[in-house]
Amino acid sequence: MVLENVKAYWGAYAVANGLDRNVPPAWMFGDGSQEMGDRLGSLVVQGIKTGTCAAHCVFELENEPIPEVNTYEIVLDGSNEPLAIIKYTKIELVKMNEVTHDFARSEGEGDLSYEYWYTGHKKFFTWELAQYGRAFTDDLLLVCQTFEVMDIYRERGSL
């Protein structure tokens, strides 16, 4: 179910930019906790976070399509309120142990090092995959998504 504020936000953006009014996926980063959703969403709004990744097998398990270049999505904060509209600029399938330092940095977390990224993502994917009865491996196939922030909700005033 799409929240009314998300529909209104996308509707205003779509009309202003001549886009389809069908609301794209809206979601928060992280493990579903308010703290992580707020922290990672804030990095997007600040322009620090321009990349994210997900386990390819989770897309398959949840029967979700893999994002495509030039598609839009709405980033939510930890309270499921809209934060920003993003557009994907690059989508790659990459094994966890082959992610580049540049991509790790684009995730915007911690000290921006590959080591910080790897440690944090290993912990996250170990937790996430356990929800599906799967185990983490170093060669876990990831969907690496690079994006551009197209609009920030708070800059639009009250919708």
From TrEMBL:
SUPFAM superfamilies linked to this entry: PUA domain-like (SSF88697)
What's one Pfam family here?
A: ASCH
Check the record and name the CDD domains matching this protein. Answer: ASCH_Ef3133_like
* Ranges where the ASCH domain occurs: 27-151
Return the InterPro entries for the record: ASCH_domain (IPR007374), DUF984 (IPR009326), PUA-like_sf (IPR015947)
Show the PANTHER family listed in the entry: CYTOPLASMIC PROTEIN (PTHR39203:SF1), CYTOPLASMIC PROTEIN-RELATED (PTHR39203)
What this protein is called in its record is ASCH domain-containing protein
- Species the sequence originates in: Listeria grandensis
